[in-house]
Amino acid sequence: FGACAGVQAAPLRRYKSVVQPLTVRTADVAAQPWKNGGGVARELLALPQRSDWRVRVSVADVASDGDFSTFAGVARWFAVVEGAGVVLTIDGREHRCTRDGEALSFAGDAHTSCRLIDGATRDLNLMLRGARGALARVVAGRAWRPRERACGLYATAAGTVRAGDEAPAPMPAHALRWWPVAPATVAFDSSGWWLDADAGATP
Known about the structure:
Radius of gyration: 20 Å
Order of helices and strands: EEEEEEEEEEEEEEEEEE
Number of strands: 18
């Protein structure tokens, strides 16, 4: 219908869409043993669904040396979060991964074997199938700008996180917080890892 003469149209109001972040504590997720018996994994996030994921975040407890499973068409990011670390041999090339080192990216279909440096470790894994993403170390107190549509924080120690212009919020240790719609910036005052991904899906 047309506008009525002499009646001023009300101004258009725009409301910001609010999507609450998801928080998953590692201790609340059941451990699933590896096929080779060398460790266990806890799946913290799988999008758009567990049976057909494009983005998967998991934490693995590695108890012994052994080969990694292969995932054709998957990009992998790997970071040590507890323990002395591991040496990964990827297609014949060695990479030393420690708790104070940077995240390692490699192809999921590469032949990858793992050797413990000094005892068991806990590792953070980001897996991407047909999706963009990355894993980056948190610099305490420094604002981080996600590059993709969704993002997350895996905290290795408890602290306070601030997303965009929202009020600071407590963040438990050994937990994942996932924002289905990434804020412009995120800052965390403790230690952990930033994750971002664009899979076109929300939890």
